[in-house]
Amino acid sequence: MTLPKNGRRSITVDGAEFHYMIAFERSERAVIQHASGRGACLFVFPHAIMKPSHVAEAIRFGISKGWTPNHQGDDCWIAFDINAQDGPLFEHIAPDDYRVVTYSTNGRIPEGIDPSRFPDTRKWYER
Are 11 and 52 in contact (CB under 8 A)? Predict the structure, then answer.
């Protein structure tokens, strides 16, 4: 998936060029991708407005959690909270987490998946 040019921003982090978009209207998330347009995406669920410095930190955090931005692979999902007093600024979200599984269905559990598998079904901003 290549990010569209309209609304896309660029940032250089540790010598690598990335593109990112922050969309609050529809799905309230940021998407970050290597500038080549190939490779896995980093999805960020922000709890606050993200500055470019936060985007750079998200990229570094995602890479530290196994995100491979310039290679095909699984997308990486993280939550961001600038007001996190007691915890980290970023939280890695596992691929089988409720927030990831229901992302493409706007919060509904896809057909064929057992709902009892998710002990915490709160949306990312309610956690």
Answer: yes
